[in-house]
Specification:
single chain, alpha/beta, seven-stranded parallel sheet, 9 helices, 14% strand, globular
Length: 211
């Protein structure tokens, strides 16, 4: 299986080449077609197996080009460091497109992040608390959010972010596509998935912990 066989388009193939990435991993090969088909997906795989590209490549392809003030895709992740990593990959993938990528997180002042969000974005990577803070400050509208990604869902749950996640879900369109990726799949995360995903396809790579 190659990225071309997964119908990854030329601008992203070129970006992958520039990043030194040649072949898709198992989670990428299994998840990308399902996500591009518009299905909700639960992806369970260990850290380091390529989950980030598994959701970024198909979602960015569906966003296609810059449009409106956005955001149209929100990726929630538990920590600043991971948010920055995902945003960096997204920006490198977007190098041959006009898609606008932003990253917002707590622990720093909100003003600069709010100004960037107000200027327009297509894809935002965010920690849940800062995302809700900026939303409540009217930095953006949520009516155009078509894709919601919950990355490292088990860690977000362990860190107490479930209330913010539930509030975010309640404030975005119900016909969105929702993707949940996690290294483990404990009962609490499974319950969260049942509440926010619609008829999801479950993809498991390797052994997982379910307790």
């Amino acid at each position: 299986m190659t990225f071309a066989e997964l119908k990854v388009t030329r601008q992203y193939l070129d970006a992958l080449g520039d990043m030194g990435i040649v072949e898709p991993t198992e989670i990428q090969s299994k998840a990308i077609p399902r996500i591009r088909a518009g299905q909700d997906v639960i992806g369970i795989a260990q850290t380091g197996t390529g989950k980030t590209l598994a959701f970024l490549l198909p979602v960015m392809a569906m966003l296609s080009h810059a449009q409106g003030k956005g955001p149209r895709c929100v990726i929630l992740t538990p920590a600043k460091e991971l948010a920055l990593q995902i945003a960096d990959v997204a920006k490198r993938l977007a190098a041959n497109t006009d898609l606008r990528v932003e990253v917002v997180y707590g622990g720093v002042g909100h003003r600069a992040q709010q100004e960037r969000m107000e200027s327009g974005t297509d894809l935002v990577v965010a920690t849940p608390g800062r995302f809700m803070e900026l939303y409540l400050r009217n930095a953006f509208v949520t009516k155009n959010i078509e894709h919601l990604v919950l990355d490292e869902a088990d860690r977000m749950f362990d860190m107490g972010f479930e209330p913010q996640i539930q509030m975010i879900v309640q404030n975005i369109r119900p016909d969105r596509q929702t993707l949940l990726f996690s290294a483990t799949f404990p009962q609490a995360v499974e319950k969260l998935a049942r509440g926010v995903l619609t008829k999801p396809v479950q993809i498991i790579v390797g052994g997982i912990s379910v307790v």
